[in-house]
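Support case: zinc ion complex. Customer-provided input:
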Amino acid sequence: MRSGPGLADTVHQVPDRRIVLIAPAWPYANGPRHIGHVVGFAVPADVLARFERLRGSRVLMASGTDEHGTPITYEADKEGIPPREFVDRNNASIVDDLVRLGMTYDIFTRTTTANHYRVTQDMFLKLYEKGYLVAHKQMGAFDPASGRTLPDRYIEGKCPICGYPDARGDQCDNCGNQLDPTDLINPHQRGSDAPVEFRETEHFFFDLPAFGERLKTWIGSHDNWRPNVRKYSLEFVRNLKPRAITRDLDWGVPVPLPGWEDNPAKKIYVWFDAVIGYLSASIEWAMQRGEPDAWKDWWESPDSHHYYVMGKDNITFHTVLWPAILMGAGDFHLPDDIVASEFLHMEGKKFSTSRGQVIYVKDVLDRYDADALRYYLMIAGPENQDTDFTWDEFVRRNNDELVATWGNLVHRTLVNAHRNFAAVPEPGAMTAADETLLLEVEKALEYVGQQLQEARFQNALKHAMAMASKVNVYLGTEQPWHTIKTDRERAGTVLYVALRCVDNLKTMFAPFLPFSSQRLHAMLGYEDLIAPQPEVRQFAEDATAHTVITGDYESGDRWHPSELRPGRKLPNPEPLFKRLDEVVEEAPSS
Ligand SMILES: [Zn+2]
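Agent response - structure generated as follows:
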C-alpha cells in the first residue's frame, strides 16, 4: 500500500536524487545457494539497496544467473539432460533462495535471454571494431567422443613435476604447481579412462595489455576500496596477458562474425558474457518498464554511483576485466565501489558442495526466519577477514542480540504503551535525560547512514544495537510500568521517548532486518511499506518467457528522525523474534 493522506508525515521528497547501481555478482547456475555464497554477493547488496532507497536514491539492483560455460555442460552431460534443462532447474532453485532471503532485485534475470545475447554480441562487435580483439591459434583439449572442449580441471594425469598420479589440468594438488593440461603425463578425463585429444583451434583474444596503464591509474585512484581489493587488483594488472573470449563449445552466446556465427562449436567465453550481464540486465529492466532508455541514467551518466558486491574470489573480474571491457567498448560508467567479502568457513573448513561441507540457504530458511540468518551473516560474516560459521554462535547472536536486546526493547515499549494508552502517548515536559537520549538516537541515523554508504556494515549494525541497549537502560531506570501507577503523565512521556527511539532504530535496522522491521512498522501504526519484498514475474521476450525477480520498492526519503505523532493508535504488539534453542518465548515485557 502506498502512503495515503495522513500517512505521509515521514515521507520527504528529494529534488536531486542520487542514482545508484547495485550490482551483485551473478550466481553460477550449477545448484542451490549455500550460506557461503549469499554472505558474499547477496545479503550485503540487498542491505545497500534498501538503505539507498530509504534515503531517497533511485536504485537499480540488477543481476541474474550465470548459465553458460563448460562446468554447466559437463554436469548436464553427467545427468544425461540438455544444458537448458539443467540451468532451468537451477535458476528456479536460486530464485527461490533469493526471494526467501528478501533480496530486492529490481531485476534478477538470466544470461540465456535473447536480450543478453544481443547486448553481449553488441559489446563484442564494439571491441572488435576498435581493434581490441585478435584471433590466435592455440592447442585445446577435447573429448573425442562428443567433440566438446574439456575444462582444465576435468582433465587428470600424472604430474610432470612431482609424479603425483591424480594431478588436474590446472594444478597439482600434491605439489601445488600450476599446470597446463598439455603438461600432464597420460592425460585422461576425470573419473574415467576416457582419452583427451589436443588439437589446434582458433580463438579471439581480448587485448587486455592495451588497457594496462589506464587500469593501473584508475585502480590507484580508488583509495576508498578495501585494502584486499586494491592489492589483488594491482597485482593482477602488473601481469596482463591477452585473454581468450571465445571457446570451443556448443552452449553459449554465438560469436557475431561471418564464418563464426553459424559454427555450432564456437561460442563466446562465459567469463565475457557473464560480466556483461550487469549492463544487459539493466537494459532488460528498462524494457520491462516500457522506458527503453531508462538504463542510460545509470550507465551513461558520470554522476551515478556503482557498487559491485561479491566474494573475494571474484574481485579481478570487477576491477580489471569488466572495467577494461567498458573502457574499450565506449563511454560507460566505471565501477565506483567494490564491496568484496572474505570467505565464510564452516568449523574451520572451506564450504564445499563436492565434499558435502555445506549449509544450504533453503535448509536454514525451512527452520529459521530470514532476518535471523541475515543478521548473523551481516554481524558475524567475513566483512574484513575470513570467519567461521557455527550453530552455537548463530543461536547466541539471535538470542542475546536480536531477542534480548532489540526485540526486548521493542516489546516492552510497545506492550506498555498499548496496555496503558492504546496509542502513542501525549508527552509532558521532557527531562534533560529524555532530550539527550532522543538526540543521541537521532544522531545515530546519520552515523549509521554514513557507515552504510561506505559499506561498513558491521560498524553500522553494532552502533544501532548499542543504541538499542542504551534505550533499554533508560527504560530500566525510568520504569514506566511502575510510574504509571503514580504519575501517568511521566510514564506517558517516557514511553513516548522510547517509542520515538524505537521508530528511529526501526529505520536503521530496516536494511538488515526487512521482515521484522516491516512488522514493527505496522505495530507502530503505519500502514505503508518501509521494507517491501520482491516478487517473481514472467517476462515475455520474442517467442519465449523467462522468470525474473523484481518489485516495486520505492519508499520515498525516510532516513530522517522519527516524527511519530501522539495520539496515533497502536495495534496489539507481538514479539519480533523467536528464541532459538527453546519454544517461542515472549520477550519480557517489564
Ligand atoms: Zn605435482
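The CA atoms of residues 113 and 546 lie 8 Å apart.

Case will auto-close in a few days if no follow-up is received.
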